[in-house]
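Our consortium's second objective concerns turning raw sequence data into structural hypotheses that experimental partners can test. To show how far this objective has progressed, the report includes one record in full. It was chosen at random from the queue rather than selected for favorable results. The single chain below, 479 residues long, was entered without modification.
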Amino acid sequence: MFDRNELFNLERKLKEFANSHKTIYIADIANAQFLFSLMEKIGIQIKGIVSMNNNETQRIKMNLPVYRVFDLIIATPPPSYIGIILFDNEKHEQNNLSLNIKLQGKQISIPVFAANIEEVSMLYDTIVAIEIIQQQERDYGAVHTKRILQHIFRGLSNLTEEDELIFYMQINKKFKKMPVYSISDTAIVMTGLIEYRNDFTVKTALMYRTWYPNVPIIISTWKGEVTQEFKQKMQQINVKVLESDYPEYAAPGHLNYQIASPRYGIEYIKNTLKGINYVLKCRSDWSFNRHNFLIYLKNLLKSYPANAVNMKERLIFMYAVIGYKQLPFAIDDYLAFGTVEDMEHMYSMPLVTREEAEPIDRCLKRFYPWVEKSGLCELLDSPKINYSKHKYFLNKCILLNIYANFYKKYIAPIDENHVMEASRNFLKNCAIIVDAAHLMAHWPKYEYTYRYEVFQCYEWPTSGGLDFIEWLNIYLSEE
């Protein structure tokens, strides 16, 4: 990932070098057209091209003369007026160098500005991007970021898919349009394994830090999963990394991991930080790319007050690729948002023991052999299940999950014969469901990638997703 400040610092240095020398040449025939275009964009006039190979004959390229170094010195004014811009594959600590040549018994020194060709290429991409964004703002009054980045920048440099939004954020900051919010009463807890591919978790944390400079960000993960380099990067952007021991028993669907990782982060917030009223729990392999998403979540809590005695406010969850209205408490674990107290209560349930899970494993093998032994989440999230046929068994599974435990402990007892009714009551009075598309969610999972365009149309056709519309219908129902 590039550094925006370094790129524009390179542009400033190039201009300073050009202004201090009367005649400027570029010393790169192979990339002459690209470099000439860059010099033109930043206002540097090029006199010609210098071939560092003195055996090469003089020729014309792009209507510019090509000189050998010796011929250049002889044919031009004194060397103090000459400046050569050289781009190569080296990483230069200093840009201002000199080319020393012995000619007719005299030592002649020609000023040279040396820079890395990859950095120069990225500077060119950035300048082109800014021009396109400015043009779109003039033409349409808005910027279609995704269209620009996917269809234009893909051919300019090696921007990965995860770099796109960061790229836009960085260049947009040049115009002081980068949104920055002063929220300080909310903390973000990113849980689970670090997504190292393409520095996904690093870029996500950087994105959140850029938008919310006063929001504490905690990454709650497991011992042995964090590299020293990752720790250093997080320290640079003021992100706290918590490393905890894995639970001894994962439980079906890794339920104990889903309980423990958020719990450690929330405990840290409550015991260490002051003035924090809200917590966003999200996974480290997800990013939410709508810059004002925290404000959106807080406004939802204001709009839909909780109707439960033991809750401060409602809890917000996100519908993405799983979660079904016909199955009790089938809610995605990707995101949860609420007050510190309510979130602490939700993740306070005891870890599931082997004894509790063993009957479930036996039933899984009997009724649903296509589900892996630890695939409770896979079972509960599948459209293939038959809730009415195996209601007794499925209710046993459901009552182990985080949300059913929260309801049972803090809202009301659950009758095993009326679990669906308890679930609808939880949704109606205690929860809010938001759509992943509303948050511009991105999930680079396994061999596929879910982005917010996919979430806008994704739904199991046989079961119906528990999205915002379905939740709103439950909320407004008179049952």
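The partners drew two points from this record. The first helix runs from residue 4 to 19. The chain has three domains: 4-119, 127-173, 186-476. Both points have been shared with the crystallography group to help prioritize constructs.
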